[in-house]
Amino acid sequence: MNGKSFLTSPPMGWNSYDFYDTTVNEKEVRANAEYMAKNLKEYGWEYIIVDIEWYSYNAGTRRSEHQYIPFEKVEMDEYSRLFPCPDRFPSSKDGKGFKPLADYVHSLGLKFGIHIMRGIPRIAAHMHTSIKGTDVDASEIADPYSISFWNPDMYGLRPDKKESQLYYDSLLELYAEWGVDFIKCDDICRMDAPQAEDEIVMLSKAIKKCGRDIVFSLSPGPARLDKVWIYEKYANMWRITDDFWDSWPLLLNMFERCEHWQNHVKAGSYPDCDMLPLGKIGKGFGDIRDTRFTKDEQITMMSLWCIFRSPMMLGAELMSLDEDALKLITNRDVLGLLKLDNQAFLAERTHDYAIWCNSDDTSLYIAMFNISDDEREISYSEIGNDVSECTELWNGNGVSIKGGVLSDTIPAHGAKVYRLI
Predict the structure, then answer these.
(1) Would you give per-residue pLDDT tens digits along the chain (421 residues)?
(2) Spatial CA neighbour of 412 closest among 365, 355, 353, 329
(3) In the chain, N or C: fewer CB atoms in 10 Å?
(4) Please, what's the largest Cα pairwise distance for the chain?
């Protein structure tokens, strides 16, 4: 990544986690990529992200006991770098890694990304495998006291060892060769481990050195406001919440989180509201189901993510999306809010409603959210008297402005978004 100028709006794409959890394979990734290229690319959706444990041979086979199986067999090269499991990603055989799959995704006009955990594989430290370009082995740069409390795969790296940076350099050299466009690094954003901040810096340096434009995404949240300068300087996006699922209390809480982070949304740097649990999710968890969000709650989620200008990652199996979900994620007018250059701002928030605003050279955009449990009328009066046209962007209907006041009836847990000219 040669600076942040290549990323001028929040990334939009698909991530395998919400549907496949740890079990996604090459056939499934290709099918979702093909669907995106055919049906969603024209609306701005372009990233295909392979999420956690693509290197594991038996991921998901003991789901009732472990989400991440301790000390399980993984695919790794002689330089302590994880490779795709060839049983799940057949095109990776013979040391090809993710390059064949990335090439295929690129051939569809899309971009390719992967999930990684911070640090170095624990098995590499125990086997004393090499670090490319050095005369030390993995055990000498691994910190055995730095282990994620929720995933047993990795040791953190020792920031006092210059070879730790060289290890990350070798990783990004490999990922650039594969054609990776996006890296989601986990167990790093909320800085549970003392050296996580150092590892953010090391990874950022490695990305810049690799010579390829790569989006650098940090997970999981909640991110720390007292560390915002680290996120803004070294990353492209950072999670402001822990894993977000289809629960109204979690969605309601996002209004407070967005309020706290609203002043830090800018080109190349995006506070991340996490994935969009729309459509069918949960196969990898053993429970395929439709999202629990109501239609109004889905509109609220999409409206908030778009006007706040969060990264947008779909988590469903794309091939199973129904017409209602497709309408939500292909509304050009609402998705257009992501492309605005100005920062959105929270204009009002009470126990019952919230109002967000943004603008461009010709229009004012207002999103009104009914966060109460009952239908209610919501009004916003800070718009002046010179509005010639007002359109609600979800249904395309014109709305009257009376006395400089925008008023509308909004269903419980629902939202409406307006463009005023």
Answers:
(1) 446 789 999 999 999 999 999 999 999 999 999 999 999 999 999 999 999 999 999 999 999 999 999 999 999 999 999 999 999 999 999 999 999 999 999 999 999 999 999 999 999 999 999 999 999 999 999 999 999 999 999 999 999 999 999 999 999 999 999 999 999 999 999 999 999 999 999 999 999 999 999 999 999 999 999 999 999 999 999 999 999 999 999 999 999 999 999 999 999 999 999 999 999 999 999 999 999 999 999 999 999 999 999 999 999 999 999 999 999 999 999 999 999 999 999 999 999 999 999 999 999 999 999 999 999 999 999 887 788 899 999 999 999 998 899 999 999 999 999 999 9
(2) 353
(3) C
(4) 75
Q: What is the DSSP pairing of strand 12-15 with strand 312-314?
A: parallel
Nearest to 248 by CA among 290, 292, 288: 292
Return d(Cα 163, Cα 133) in angstroms, integer. 9
Contact 179, 106 (CB under 8 A): yes
- Give CA–CA dist 283/285, Å, rounded: 5
Nearest residue to 51 (alpha-carbon basis) of 26, 30, 32, 24: 24
Rounded to whole angstroms, the Cα distance separating 114 from 111 reads 11
Are the C-beta atoms of 268 and 8 separated by less than 8 Å? yes
Contact 61, 69 (CB under 8 A): yes
